[in-house]
Recover the amino acids of this structure.
């Protein structure tokens, strides 16, 4: 049975985080389910037990050694009632993108906690926001949507997503992690291939830079609102010709549409994503070029920023899950003479060299790879074809005597037939 969780998360205050401290020690304006759960362990006296300490330590250790992945990522993961485990995924994002994570719990109803961090140059992860799922007991998997976390990136860098389940539960989750543009594409029917001039390109023999992107399309093609907003101005200017300045209602920025053939809105008009603002043309200083839309973004306090990551369509799909998910949670061994434990599926970053019959636990599956954990806790990825189930231990005797007390002389008992 699949148990699904609905969670809509908005960005909250940024907090500093020292990786050497437990997450419960962060100063925080908002207490999440993860925070409450960690506090409940302490209040119940469980934080000093072996399993409680392992759960709190796993929260931090996963951040110290995150797995490096490329987006989009689809991974099936496993958590065990006998072990307190957390997993963290590290990935890169560009200013203007939005990271979207959907998580679906499979099996017994469980609390799952999802935290998002930004990696900083001082080796500490800066807390961005958390999505934590409260108990899903009683939820109907046929009608309840997935747990979903969204965050819009405000500066290019590396980010870490951590997943952790509550104690004493075994089960599985399906994770989909991907990057998306934060704005809609601003020209109807156009796509990435329609962009033929980019931000920062030289203009006027190097006397100025291009502060936008040029999206080429047939004259009269609708130029669309890339976000909900209010039209600030449609006053023409020498460079842009017929223009629209659209104030973004959701973000501290203004979108600039230039070289329009004609307008379709008026100053002060409120528009929604996909509404027509005007029509592609070549007015202003574009009179000698083919019709196109000059699209720019001006961020409050920064000025012009590269708009391409905000609208670039991402068509890549995650690798098809081909590894046998029936082995998740099982003990296994390597089946080849030599293989490498990798930091990411298919990467050249080797965590450790492994030999035949190296013992491991299969805790995740992505594409044709297993995410495994070695006996000493080190984790990484190995090809699924190079892992087999561990041999079963020898069968115990079919018959054995159960005694009421320890035998004083086992050899003598055997001779007497007792």
């Amino acid at each position: 049975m699949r148990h699904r969780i609905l969670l809509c998360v908005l960005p909250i205050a940024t907090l500093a985080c020292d990786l050497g401290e437990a997450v419960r020690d962060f100063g925080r304006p908002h207490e999440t389910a993860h925070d409450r759960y960690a506090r409940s362990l302490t209040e119940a006296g469980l934080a000093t037990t072996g399993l409680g300490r392992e759960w709190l330590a796993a929260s931090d250790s996963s951040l110290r050694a995150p797995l490096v992945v490329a987006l989009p990522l689809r991974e099936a993961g496993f958590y065990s009632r006998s072990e307190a485990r957390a997993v963290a995924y590290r990935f890169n994002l560009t200013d203007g993108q939005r990271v979207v994570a959907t998580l679906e719990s499979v099996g017994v109803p469980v609390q799952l906690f999802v935290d998002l961090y930004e990696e900083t140059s001082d080796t500490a992860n800066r807390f961005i926001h958390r999505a934590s799922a409260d108990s899903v007991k009683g939820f109907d998997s046929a009608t309840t949507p997935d747990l979903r976390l969204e965050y819009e990136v405000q500066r290019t860098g590396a980010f870490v997503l951590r997943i952790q389940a509550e104690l004493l539960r075994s089960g599985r989750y399906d994770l989909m992690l991907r990057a998306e543009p934060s704005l809609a594409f601003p020209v109807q029917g156009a796509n990435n291939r329609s962009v033929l001039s980019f931000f920062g390109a030289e203009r006027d023999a190097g006397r100025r830079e291009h502060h936008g992107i040029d999206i080429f399309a047939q004259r009269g093609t609708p130029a669309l609102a890339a976000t909900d907003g209010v039209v600030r101005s449609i006053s023409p200017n020498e460079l842009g010709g017929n223009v629209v300045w659209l104030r973004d209602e959701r973000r501290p920025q203004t979108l600039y549409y230039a070289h329009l053939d004609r307008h379709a809105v008026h100053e002060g008009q409120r528009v929604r994503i996909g509404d027509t603002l005007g029509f592609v043309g070549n007015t202003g200083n574009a009179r000698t070029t083919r019709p196109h839309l000059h699209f720019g973004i001006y961020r409050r306090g920064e000025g012009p920023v590269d708009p391409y990551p905000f609208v670039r369509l991402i068509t890549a799909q995650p690798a098809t899950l081909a590894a046998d998910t029936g082995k998740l949670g099982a003990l296994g061994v390597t089946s080849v003479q030599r293989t490498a434990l990798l930091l990411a599926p298919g990467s050249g970053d080797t965590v450790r060299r492994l030999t035949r019959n190296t013992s491991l636990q299969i805790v995740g599956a992505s594409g044709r790879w297993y995410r495994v954990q070695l006996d000493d806790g080190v984790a990484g990825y190995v090809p699924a074809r190079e892992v087999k189930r561990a041999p079963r231990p020898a069968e115990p005797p079919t018959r054995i005597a159960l005694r009421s007390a320890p035998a004083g002389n086992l050899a003598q008992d055997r001779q007497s037939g007792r």
Summary: The helical segments are 33-43, 50-64, 308-311, 410-416. The chain is about 10% helix and 40% strand. The first strand starts at residue 2 and ends at 3.
